[in-house]
Write a structure and sequence with these properties.
CATH topology of the largest domain: Glutaconate Coenzyme A-transferase
CATH class of the largest domain: Alpha Beta
Mean pLDDT: 93
Strand content: 15-25%
Order of helices and strands: HHEHEHEHEHEHEEEEHEHEEHHHHEEH
Structural class: alpha/beta
CATH superfamily of the largest domain: Glutaconate Coenzyme A-transferase
Largest sheet: 9 strands, mixed
Length: about 350
């Protein structure tokens, strides 16, 4: 049953994936931060006008601001969001908070990650470092009042241990270098929360630079950050993480990000940026076409990564099973029938041996 599900072709467009797997009121985790941000999927969520989302993000740069500008966010659970220009300027997030347009819950990077780890492993909670008690992250509860931290008694020392509640978001969105059509997704570089965010979530949407064949995935199994059976949709989306970095493909686009922060210092500028780069383009292809028209192809090409390939690792094995095609065991030097007779004669017969 599981094998049949894994072999399902899950390729679709970003529009189809968001329509099918993201609903108003969902909890959404961005399955990475500061690196390989899934902007193409987030822009599609904004274009489709998804509302009342509870968004989990360890560290944001501008993606959280864009979701807020799109009116998508009801509650934000976060550890950090980039702030620009000092106290004299209010960011998009600050303006939204001052107007009471969203709720916020503060975590540290470690406690937010642990929250996802607990959810991924099926635990109701996990312990965190007790030093968190000395901070407002622990003392102040807003959106998750009574459902943020707790204390349990250690069965070994009798001491009180701080625990964080496990979470299972409805949807995780992730961008990676490559995936196969079944959803086996491979990411290298800064992992941050990618693995735990995906494994904790009920549904996972993966966008990737390239859809590759299954053999390519099998030849580098250590790079698979989320297995196919946990993935609902695979979206082939070149430059899907721009303007963030993706090793092997492109660097940060600092100039483009600076444009966002400069424009969004005002309400009018923020609306203009969203209209130009999110609502004014139908998909990532049009986004890239507009980028080239606006800045020139050279600026995009300058971001492309220079090759720096890793040394291959040999994953070869004999491939020999317990029994060959003639039902003979190499280890025991007897057939399966002879092996079962020997077990019976020695009084060690195990009913139903089939392996």
């Amino acid at each position: 049953m599981l094998e049949k599900y894994m072999e399902k072709d899950k390729r679709m467009t970003a529009r189809e994936a968001v329509e099918r797997f993201v609903s108003d009121g969902d909890s959404l985790v961005i399955a990475n931060c500061l690196y390989s941000t899934p902007y193409a999927l987030l822009h599609e969520i904004i274009r489709q006008g998804k509302k009342n989302l509870t968004v989990f993000q360890q560290g944001g740069i501008d993606e959280l601001d864009q979701l807020i500008l799109g009116g998508c966010v009801k509650t934000l659970a976060m550890a950090y969001n980039f702030r620009v220009a000092g106290e004299r300027i209010q960011t998009v997030l600050e303006r939204a908070l001052r107007r009471g347009e969203l709720e916020i819950e503060d975590y540290s990077n470690y406690t937010l990650l642990t929250m996802l780890q607990a959810g991924a492993m099926g635990y109701p909670f996990l312990p965190v470092m007790s030093g968190i008690r000395e901070t407002d992250v622990y003392r102040v509860e807003r959106a998750f009042k009574g459902q943020k931290f707790g204390e349990v008694t250690c069965p070994f020392t009798g001491e009180k241990v701080v625990v964080v509640k496990g979470r299972n978001p409805d949807v995780a969105v992730l961008h990676v270098q490559r995936a196969d059509k079944f959803g086996n997704a491979q990411l290298w570089g800064a992992m941050i929360n990618s693995k735990w965010a995906c494994l904790a979530s009920h549904r996972v949407i993966v966008s990737c630079e390239q859809v590759v064949d299954e053999e390519t995935i099998l030849r580098s199994p250590h790079l698979t950050v989320v297995p196919g059976f946990r993935v609902c949709a695979v979206v082939e989306e070149p430059w899907g993480a721009h303007p963030s970095e993706l090793l092997g493909f492109y660097d940060y686009d600092m100039a483009f990000r600076s444009l966002f922060f400069m424009q969004t210092m005002s309400e009018e500028g923020a609306r203009a940026w969203m209209e130009e780069w999110v609502y004014g383009v139908a998909d990532r292809r049009e986004y890239l076409q507009h980028y080239v028209e606006r800045f020139g192809l050279r600026f995009l090409q300058e971001l492309r990564a220079k090759p720096y390939t890793s040394i291959p690792a040999d994953y070869g094995a004999t491939g020999r099973g317990a029994w060959d095609e003639n039902e003979v065991s190499f280890n025991f030097q007897m057939t399966r029938a002879e092996f079962l007779r020997a077990l019976e004669e020695k009084g060690g017969f195990v009913d139903g041996v089939d392996g």
